[in-house]
Amino acid sequence: SVIPRRSRFHETVVHTIATCDRFDRRFDQFEAVHDAILEPLKSYNWVHVLPNAAIVVSALLLGGGDYERTISAAVMAGYDTDCNGATAGSTCGAMIGAEALPRRWTDPLNDTLYSAIPGYHPISIRECARRSLAITQTS
Predict the structure, then answer these.
(1) Distance between terminal CA atoms of the chain?
(2) Which residues pair with 113 in a beta bridge?
(3) What pLDDT score does 45 carry?
(4) Distances (CA, A) of 128 to 56, 89, 107, 119
(5) CA nearest 56: which of 79, 30, 74?
(6) Using CA atoms, how far apart are residues 23 and 11, in angstroms rounded to an integer?
(7) Do 41 and 54 contact (CB within 8 A), yes or no?
(8) Residue 139 pLDDT > 80, yes or no?
(9) Are 62 and 73 in contact (CB under 8 A)?
(10) Angle 117-119-123 (CA atoms, 0-180°, nearest 5)?
(11) pTM over 0.85
(12) Is the Cβ–Cβ distance between 69 and 62 less than 8 Å?
């Protein structure tokens, strides 16, 4: 609803959703899905927003709320793997909630973020989430 309907970005997202639906959003079909969504985008560089957005959208749909499958689908597609894995993972995490995240991913972090911003770290990850939520609620 927030993507301009007359944009290439919107066209890419719509095509990606339709392609995932054509393959019944099955994780085991991720290679065929990625081939189909990336074919019309093959002229773009591997860091361009359109193919990477298509990968993230497809990962979210193919992952079906499973955190590890979502990240795996995003990374296995190639292209900008670190950004796509992080974007798909953080979006899936926000969708399913912190308590649903696999502990093997969260426990090693000890609820602590070390930032490159001087004087900002360490800070609790929960505190960062609280602050982010507060920002969205004031808009």
Answers:
(1) 17
(2) 123
(3) 94
(4) 23, 17, 17, 14
(5) 74
(6) 19
(7) yes
(8) no
(9) yes
(10) 85
(11) yes
(12) yes
